[in-house]
Amino acid sequence: MWERIPTTPRQNLAEHKTFRCHIDTPDGRALAGVYVSLTAPALDGYIGVLAGRAPLTAVVTTGQITLVPPQGAPEELFVSRGFLQVHEDTVSILAEECKPIRELDAERAWDLLQQAYKLPRETDEQIAYRDEMIRAERIRFGLAQKARKGMMSMEQMLTRGLT
């Protein structure tokens, strides 16, 4: 016969194990702090990290990193290409670019997407690079729109020109 296990209210996240995380870019340290969990975009999907995770090295792709601190709201960051390493109680990320999603500018992201569409596509290497840049800039634009809590109108998109 099955015995019902009593449930308890969700524990305060401050009681959970934590790990240190820092993100570095060519411009310097983008973030450093203590967190309960992290999700990051990798080549084969998103990676989740909790304290005590086995050592890991992964390629980070363009996307959203979500960090959950012991107290307070989760931090959402835009990251562009790099590497992630988990070692003991530390997560280190080296990325080309990293900034809070709320700081992304939708108009600038749209312009970068337009520039990606205009990249040359005469050789296989150029086509691969162009496709990767379009994918990355679509992600940036989508996250910028998310931060804006709204979308550019179709009229705004058309007047800015998708060629």
Please sum up the structure shown.
Helix content is 27%, strand content 38%.
**C-alpha-based Rg, rounded:** 19 Å
Distance between the termini: 67 Å
Number of structural units classed as domains: 2
CATH class of the largest domain: Mainly Beta
Low-pLDDT segments:
4-11
Q: Superfamily at the CATH H level of the largest domain?
A: F0F1 ATP synthase delta/epsilon subunit, N-terminal
Principal-axes geometry comes out as: globular
Number of helices: 3
Kindly state the mean pLDDT as a whole number?
87
Residue share in helix:
25-40%
And the CATH topology of the largest domain? ATP Synthase, domain 1
CATH architecture of the largest domain: Sandwich
- How many strand segments? 8
Class from helix and strand fractions: alpha+beta
Beta content: 35-45%
Sketch the topology as an H/E string, one letter per element. Answer: EEEEEEEEHHH
Largest sheet data: 8 strands, mixed
